[in-house]
Amino acid sequence: MATLFLDPKTWDLTLDSEGNIAYAKDPYAKAQDVASAVRLFKGELYYDTEKGIPYFDETLGKKQSLALYQYRLEQEALTVSGVVSAKATIESREGRIVSGFLSFTDDTNNTLKVQL
Q1: CATH of the domain at 83
Q2: What is the pTM of this model?
Q3: Residue 3 exposed, middle or buried by CB count within 10 Å (0-12, 13-18, 19+)
């Protein structure tokens, strides 16, 4: 599996050493696709508005259970091709800051982790 490589700092396309659009390969490609999936707002993907997490409806500016958010992250990670299991670890800190990571296992039994 290959996907367009997104610069980790800007989350934008980047070029390879030959000046072509860079591609990422597994296992990094799966990790990047999982990170993209959990960042997707429901309704944002114009060709499939059912994909994504309902951040506007359930999360932003609303009192929400961390368990529900954890569930949403895990379910969205499972929509990525080749991901067979996912476990989100969420921490809530003062000042309404949420951080954590999402660990997932792919169909080749690699276990990877993405920061939230």
Answers
A1: 3.10.450.40
A2: 0.86
A3: middle
